[in-house]
Amino acid sequence: MSLVGKKAPLFSVPAVINGEEIVENFSLDQYLGKKDVVFFFYPKDFTFVCPTEILAFQEKLGEFEKRGVAVVAASTDSEESHLAWLNLPKEQGGIMGVTYPIVADGAKTVAHNFGVLAGEWNYSEDGELTFEGAPVAYRGTFLIDKNGVVRQETINDLPLGRNIDEMIRLVDALHHVEKFGEVCPANWEDGKEAMSATKEGVAAYLSKN
């Protein structure tokens, strides 16, 4: 089930902030009424595609911040694992230098509630609880507005890395809609013409494009 148009699931779990400090009760509630949030899941620490994405978000962090958007990552690893990876230099496969929060979803409840857990629990014929699939998160990305409502989501399979510039474009589109009340057509980018959500508006836009 898609979360778009619904309140983002609540959670309070450990996280590493500022690349060095473990906090025990991290929640997205701190951004309500203040900032939009790009909340993204990645499968696992100390892997291969994941650091490229995490570092790419860090490289673009200034672009998100100047738009009033917080970036928060999450995986099903522990906070200690996150901290160890954050202390490992890039040339050794680490993510040293990342400053945005990284949530530790050890119980896998956050990933489950956001619909990105790459497997599920089931009972065997003997009544034993088992896990089928991969006990990690898919590459889920959620754009959450200041009211805590999910406005956009994408979920990639484990081998498929994200385009960070596309997330910035979606943030710009959301802000344009909120500011001007217009809708953003296909391939819209900041600075390009949008259109009114009327037959006349669509006709006028299509006649010029």
TrEMBL record:
It comes from the Bacteria. GO terms for molecular function: thioredoxin peroxidase activity. InterPro entries: AhpC/TSA, Peroxiredoxin, Peroxiredoxin_AhpC-typ, Peroxiredoxin_C, Thioredoxin-like_sf, Thioredoxin_domain. It is found in: Cytoplasm. The active site is at 50 (cysteine sulfenic acid (-soh) intermediate). Pfam families: 1-cysPrx_C (PF10417), AhpC-TSA (PF00578). Residues 2-176 form the Thioredoxin domain. Belongs to the peroxiredoxin family. AhpC/Prx1 subfamily. Thiol-specific peroxidase that catalyzes the reduction of hydrogen peroxide and organic hydroperoxides to water and alcohols, respectively. Plays a role in cell protection against oxidative stress by detoxifying peroxides. This is Thioredoxin peroxidase. It comes from Rhodonellum psychrophilum GCM71 = DSM 17998.
